[in-house]
Design a protein that fits this description.
Blueprint (H helix, E strand, L loop, with lengths): L3 H14 L1 H20 L6 H13 L1 E2 L1 H8 L3 H13 L3 E5 L6 E5 L1 H24 L2 H11 L14
């Protein structure tokens, strides 16, 4: 067992060097910024991401949206339930009844359109708060990461 001083040293090093901790802190900070900007439009960052993914896909299975956004199915399901209830997204059964197909409804399109100015303002603010090199690195890196980790699990 490590001595208390050793444990403190190791803990400080992990706090300083841990990429997972840094990325999660950055994610929470930036998500709060976007959520605050989008709140007057009745949509969260997570919900807007799903709406945008569906706008790009046209029609998609929940699994495809979860994969595209690197989400766990349960996380997506919670957001989908709310968006279906609000009639932002339509759900139709798949060919064999074992899958569902999602599509953006007119109300969901209106949410994207009405939230766009607030999203742009949040984008400008987030960009201004970060180092330009970090913004460019995030843009480059995010699209190149696999959607599943080495153990086959998705993002938590």
């Amino acid at each position: 067992m490590a001595a208390p001083d050793d444990l403190q040293r190791v803990a400080r090093a992990m706090r300083h060097d841990c990429l997972a901790m840094r990325v999660r802190q950055l994610n929470r900070r930036i998500t709060r910024l976007y959520d605050a900007a989008l709140r007057p439009h009745g949509v969260s960052t997570a919900q807007l991401n799903v709406l945008v993914a569906l706008a790009l896909a046209g029609e998609a299975r929940p699994t495809d949206i979860a994969r595209a956004l690197a989400l766990e199915k349960s996380t997506l399901s919670r957001n989908l339930d709310r968006m279906v209830e609000r009639r932002w997204i339509g759900v139709t059964p798949g060919e064999r009844g074992t899958t569902q197909h999602l599509r953006l409804l007119p109300a969901g399109r209106r949410v994207i359109e009405s939230a766009m100015p607030a999203w742009r303002a949040a984008q400008r603010r987030a960009t201004a708060e970060l180092e330009p090199e970090l913004v460019e690195a995030l843009k480059r890196t995010a699209g190149t990461l696999p959607s599943r980790d080495a153990h086959g699990g998705g993002e938590q």
